[in-house]
Amino acid sequence: MILYFSFALAAAMAMSALADEIFVSSAASLTDALKEVAARFEKQTGTKVVLNFGASSLLARQIEENAPVDVFISADEAQMDRVQKEIAPESRTDLLTNKLVVIVRQDSALHLDNLEDLVKPECGRIALADSKAVPAGVYAREVLTKAGLWEKVEAKVVPTENVRATLAVVEVGNADAGFVYKTDAMTSHLVRLGLEVPPVLSPRIVYPVAILDSSTHRDQGARFLAYLKSPEAVEVFERFGFGITK
Hints:
This protein is 35% helix and 23% strand. It has 246 residues and is α/β, with parallel strands linked by helices. The chain has two domains: 134 residues, Periplasmic binding protein-like II (D-Maltodextrin-Binding Protein, domain 2, 3-Layer(aba) Sandwich); 97 residues, Periplasmic binding protein-like II (D-Maltodextrin-Binding Protein, domain 2, 3-Layer(aba) Sandwich), CATH 3.40.190. The strands form two sheets. A seven-stranded mixed beta sheet has the order 1-3-2-4-11-5-12.
């Protein structure tokens, strides 16, 4: 059984005395794939995996505040860089890649041929994660800025806590379009792909992973990192639409 955990800190620290247990903080966009990977790892090894999903910026802040984390998986390099002093540097490695896309509701009449169409009046609200902190939002703002569109659409932006919240906002119709990762778009039957970000504007989206220097479960953490690159885990990640770093 995998426990899903949102850091009631005192309880987590009490639980951390268990030897065969690791605490993994992961970017929200990995929710579905990592649940399956962690379940397989747990079944093979007997090591319990406690998963904490959220915006990478929030997870980094929790680490800075000494949350009991063994493994951190970020949706961008910037948030891993932010906690570089808290990780075991030799354990850091790039794990996955992703793509940024624009989604609309499955039943939406909105037709997008290019990013410029987001300026049109019929596209009234655009959901994206916090563009100053959350990787998916930072990437979206970077793309729109490169395209010369940020100032034209900024007033339309509906900010969200993380990329999964962006997906939910579009699913329920509280935004006409939203920037999410390709992998998030694939998880929902309530949305469809509006358009993919053109390669010339597309940012390099990499998911680094590392063991925390303060981890009291280094051996289990190292085994988990090794498993994340195993053929079994790769099959799951690819099925959910992630690219594998070489």
